[in-house]
Write a structure and sequence with these properties.
Layout: E1 2-3, H1 9-19, H2 26-34, E2 38-45, E3 48-57, E4 61-69, H3 78-87, E5 98-104, H4 108-116, E6 120-125, E7 136-142
Parallel strand pairs: 4-5
Antiparallel strand pairs: 1-2, 2-3, 3-4, 5-7, 6-7
The structure holds coenzyme A.
Length: 170
């Protein structure tokens, strides 16, 4: 995994259009890359962009804005690796204990995936989307509070990704 750059946007939009009924445009990816508090990560295998993870940081939580793996690379564990990488951001130092994701109700595979990686659907939001009548399934992954968290202060390291998604050769 590495920080995404504007040069990745064509690869992102290509994957996005293959993965979603209502894909983000290049302008939406660009806006999220620019938005302070938003982090855009690219997942690469052998130098090729095969997926991305875009999330927003707030004091108490990490909200997943977008996550996809190119169809030909799905079911090889890359999505799970991206989520595991994100879960490692939930440290006592930052005080963040929650990752959230909103899934369209028709995205059954996405919902199964989030359940498989330890999330639980905790709410259903009706009328969540402008373009369809679908509801959103609101998923949570939570860690227990760290009693020592108050003794430490967040550092810039808490915002800097340091782990690479490994190719498992499948
Ligand atoms: C959801 C998504 C990111 C998962 O990525 P992935 O790399 O294929 O997922 P993984 O291979 O790590 O799967 C982990 C587990 O999730 C479950 N899972 C993932 N995709 C599944 C599917 N299509 N059907 C059933 N279970 C699935 C399985 O339990 C899987 O473990 P297994 O392969 O050992 O059985 C990918 O399918 C995708 O990009 N989908 C389209 C975009 C999307 O829906 N994004 C999520 C909403 S933002």
């Amino acid at each position: 995994m590495r920080w995404a750059k504007p040069i990745d946007i064509p690869a992102f939009t290509e994957i996005e259009e293959l993965c979603f009924a209502y894909p983000w445009s290049a302008a939406e990816f660009k806006a999220h890359m620019k938005f302070r508090g938003c982090v855009s990560m690219a997942a690469e295998v052998d130098g090729k962009v095969i997926g991305y993870l875009i999330y927003q940081l707030s004091p108490s939580r990490i909200s997943i804005c977008n996550l996809a793996v190119a169809p030909e690379f799905q079911r090889h564990g890359y999505g799970r690796q991206m989520i595991e990488w994100l879960k490692r951001k939930l440290t006592g130092r930052t005080g963040r204990r929650l990752v959230t994701a909103d899934l369209r109700e028709r995205n059954v595979c996405g919902c199964i995936f989030f359940r498989a990686v330890g999330f639980r659907c905790v709410n259903i939001f009706h009328g969540f989307y402008d373009e369809t009548d679908e509801s959103a399934y609101h998923f949570h992954f939570k860690v227990k509070p760290n009693p020592n968290a108050a003794l430490t202060v967040p550092t810039s390291e808490d915002l800097i990704p340091e782990v690479e998604v490994e190719s498992d050769g499948q």
